[in-house]
Amino acid sequence: MRVAILDDEQIFVDSLYKLLWKEMNFELFTYTDPNKLLEDYSLGKRFDIIFCDVIMEPFNGIEVGKKIRTYDSTCFIIYLTSDLSSAPKGYEVNAFRYLIKPIDEKSLSDTLESIRKEIHNKKKRLLRIDASFGSMILNTADILYIEANNKDTAVYTDDDSITVRKNLTDFEEELSGQHFCRIHRSILVNLERISQYDSSHITLDNGNTLSLSRRRYKDFESAFNAFISGE
């Protein structure tokens, strides 16, 4: 992974570099000037993780984070600070975590492990769709439901529907453990996208209504209750 360290005090840059150097799968880049990091971003350089000091000149860390987000919505931004009073502002840039200076090895190790788990979970939520026009990679959170129609199956997302030659049972097995539930012999629904339901119908968060089989109602309700309780 490509990791950037931004702090206007070289002593903190060097200290964190030494701790991260032990991670052999990291490619490390260091900055003491926020303008230089932003310039590199404008030229197309990207990082998986950015460790960013909060108090800097001419831009503070929150301002730097906002500018980075105009280029990159997925990198992990970790703020370095001796004062957590700015922590609420981190939500404005979807900061992953705050670390208190001086950075201790245990806090850093825990943060890196959390990032690895987050990346692993994101990979698990990707689904490959092989359609007639080629292969697509979808985030399962974007799937509303999947419906079988004879030999074809349609995958419905917020923006489109993709028809593939694959049976619904194969999709059900592939999505096992990802909050999908068979609510009808021909429909597999994303539990995350349900806004309400009754004994015969399910309404999705985009307003679409799907039929709920009477035979599958109890299994669906059990699965949905487990989902909302975090089980």
Structural description of this entry:
The chain has 231 residues and is an alpha/beta fold. The chain is 29% helix and 32% strand. Strand 3 (49-53), helix 3 and strand 4 form a beta-alpha-beta unit. It is elongated, with a radius of gyration of 23 Å.
Secondary structure topology:
Elements: E1 2-6, H1 10-20, E2 27-31, H2 34-42, E3 49-53, H3 61-69, E4 76-81, E5 97-100, H4 105-124, E6 126-131, E7 134-139, E8 143-149, E9 152-157, E10 161-164, H5 168-174, E11 180-184, E12 187-190, E13 194-197, E14 201-204, E15 209-211, H6 217-228
Parallel strand pairs: 1-2, 1-3, 3-4, 4-5
Antiparallel strand pairs: 6-7, 8-9, 8-12, 9-10, 11-12, 13-14, 14-15
Unreliable runs, pLDDT <50, ≥5 residues?
none
Output the number of helix runs.
6
Biggest beta sheet attributes: 5 strands, parallel
- How far do the termini sit from each other? 32 Å
How would you sum up the global shape?
elongated
Structural class: alpha/beta
**What spatial order of strands do you see in the largest sheet?**
2-1-3-4-5
Q: What would you call the quaternary organization?
A: single chain
What would you report as the Rg, rounded to the nearest angstrom? 23 Å
